[in-house]
Amino acid sequence: MNTKMDRRKKYTRMVLKDSLMQLLKEKPISAITVKELCELADINRSTFYSHYGDHYDLLSKIEEEIIEDMQEKLQMFNMWTEELIPIEMILEYIVDKKDVFLVLLKENGENNLHKRVRNLAHGFLVNHLMRMHSIEKDKIEYLSMFIVSGSIQMIISWLDRGMDKSEKELAGMINTFANKGLLGVESL
Amino acid sequence: MNTKMDRRKKYTRMVLKDSLMQLLKEKPISAITVKELCELADINRSTFYSHYGDHYDLLSKIEEEIIEDMQEKLQMFNMWTEELIPIEMILEYIVDKKDVFLVLLKENGENNLHKRVRNLAHGFLVNHLMRMHSIEKDKIEYLSMFIVSGSIQMIISWLDRGMDKSEKELAGMINTFANKGLLGVESL
DNA sequence: GACACCGTGTTGGCTATACAACAAACAGTT
DNA sequence: AACTGTTTGTTGTATAGCCAACACGGTGTC
């Protein structure tokens, strides 16, 4: 059902989300308390608990939101273009939420969003490669993982360097690197 | 009594205030509807009416707030300095709320804030002059009005020109102009 | 004049949030 | 171990805000 959410709920979730993002810029989630999060958001703590189990839950919800967004974008891509991966589209999305991605993709070690983005891209690329190439599924899995992981690290590095190239440039690079690998596979 | 206001009320008033200020940048209050104000603020209209009588009431409250703030600043000034008018202090305050002042002081014709600021400064300067000079109250009234009106117009012009001088510079100019006039009166 | 549309001011019922308080768990100190 | 301070998760009550609806007044069109 497409019932509109009460604006109070919308607001509460929004400020909690923004506040967690802000705190995550300063310290890892393990060093953040629900108390200070609510103080920053100016939201009563019991209200926080009526929405979320804890701040890890909130973070998970944020990540889910992002993944859903990206999934939507990828669905749109399925419909009409031939590019290997819709990298430019994804980069535009990432730039739009640069602060979030910088915080969440760069966090010490691999966290959930990193894994989720990778799995999303991986699943998409595997399907794409299987439709376009006659290669064993086994090999496609590895190839896809190779391309996706490489691409993600490139993107993280790019964000870290303050996006010193245009989206178009970076997308071109990623596609070139991905396609070169593909040519190698074709000659198997 | 110093009872803390419920944070919901605080938030509601704040967004309504900010939204009215934003709309006033685009059009005069007579062209603004309560409906669009509430839409912009994302606040239910009946909530608006539980806080304010109408949007003119809201504007009046905003102005009162500003006057009270300035009054506080002037009280502090009374306590410890010799300057004719605490212009630098006032300019700092005005810069801090530049957007508000630009909108409200510049509006077509004289509006309430213009009058209120003038009366506040006038009252202050009259008291000040009477303590420091032996001049007829009558003359002081005129003199004060002269200085205050001139100063306010200078400030409006300064805001309009994007504050092309530092606060210190403008304060210096205003004080010099005011004092020159004062010297003229002394030789009466 | 009739009609449609829009904004206003108001109302009643419901929902979300605030607030204070409590017990428990945890961490650090002596 | 005892103590202190902090955070957590929860609870009950009160408050503020939301929403939909209504009647009314004003405006413009036919």
From TrEMBL, chains A, B:
Residues 10-70 form the HTH tetR-type domain. InterPro entries: Homeodomain-like_sf (IPR009057), HTH-type_Tx_Regulator (IPR050624), HTH_TetR (IPR001647), TetR_C_Firmicutes (IPR039532). One of its GO terms (molecular function) is DNA binding. Keywords: DNA-binding, Membrane, Repressor, Transmembrane, Transmembrane helix. The chain crosses the membrane at residues 140-159. Residues 33-52 bind DNA. It holds the Pfam family TetR_C_8. Gene3D superfamilies: Tetracycline Repressor, domain 2 (1.10.357.10). Signal peptide: none annotated. This is TetR family transcriptional regulator. It comes from Mesobacillus campisalis. The lineage of its organism: Bacteria, Bacillati, Bacillota, Bacilli, Bacillales.
